[in-house]
Write a structure and sequence with these properties.
Helix content is 75%, strand content 0%. By secondary structure, it is an all-alpha fold.
């Protein structure tokens, strides 16, 4: 791939990883629509690392408080939250590993992406409109965390969006928009780390783990794009709804169906 193509993919990955519009769906569609070659495992690892660094940096205070709660006396109030984040990651971890072993080629079909984009976009709209705004992060319970965790398994279907389905579940449970996004972002850290490690293991087995300029550029661009996307999303949700993202999903999904069937 050319440096320009890698840059485009890295920016797309960074922006879509945390917005409720599906990063995997977009990354699958790019080569389908442009005939670009696959970016390869090394770039996969690089963009995952960039996205991970962005979310860790943005939520560094939250992560510090959660970490301190595990080791410091008098900070026990944050320990259940750490346990909830870990427990909520287990379902998608098991399902993701199983899917990685058996392969997911059947799910990478543009038709699957198109319908998932539309259906889960509508579900996000309904949840955002019906869900009350009574609960914040500190009101998270084990039951709510596990409900969000099991909903996250659906994100293994390209077009669903990991952030989108977790925010949908959180809004259904009555969490405020910004807090739904906050829990979703924190929940993304172990998920992105696990996905990056799986890709890294595949890369190591392939015997091509050397760091390249292309990988550094891709990782750096993914980091910048992801950080801006997180900052923008959190700022937006403090004062507005998910509706613009729903509209985007409906337009994208409909456009894909027209492209596929005509």
């Amino acid at each position: 791939m050319t440096l320009f193509q890698l840059a485009v993919l890295a920016v797309i990955q960074g922006i879509t990883e945390f917005l409720p519009i599906s990063s995997s769906g977009h990354l699958i569609l790019v080569p389908e629509l442009t005939s670009w070659p696959d970016q390869g495992l090394l770039i996969d690892v690089a963009v995952h690392a960039g996205s991970l660094l962005a979310v860790v940096l943005y939520f560094i205070r939250d992560i510090w408080q959660l970490t301190r709660g595990l080791v410091a006396r008098g900070s026990a109030s944050t320990r259940p939250q750490v346990g909830m984040l870990i427990a909520a990651t287990i379902p998608v971890g098991i399902a993701g590993f199983a899917l990685h072993e058996v392969g997911q080629e059947n799910l990478r079909d543009p038709q699957v992406i198109a319908w998932a984009t539309i259906i889960f976009g509508i579900l996000l709209y309904v949840a955002d409109r019906v869900g009350m705004t009574l609960r914040r992060m500190e009101h998270m319970t084990w039951g709510a965390a596990m409900t969000i965790g099991f909903a996250q398994v659906l994100a293994l279907i390209p077009g669903t969006s990991r952030s989108g389905i977790t925010m949908t579940a959180a809004r259904m449970l009555g969490f405020e928009r910004a807090d739904a996004a906050r829990f979703s972002m924190l929940l993304s850290i172990p998920v992105i780390l696990a996905a990056g490690l799986l890709a890294g293991i595949d890369l190591y087995k392939a015997g091509d783990a050397s760091l390249t300029t292309a990988a550094l550029v891709a990782g750096g661009l993914a980091f910048v794009a992801a950080y801006i996307a997180i900052w923008g999303l959190m700022a937006w949700l403090r004062r507005a709804s998910f509706t613009p993202f729903v509209i985007y999903r409906l337009v994208l999904g409909t456009g894909l169906l027209i492209w596929i069937y005509t």
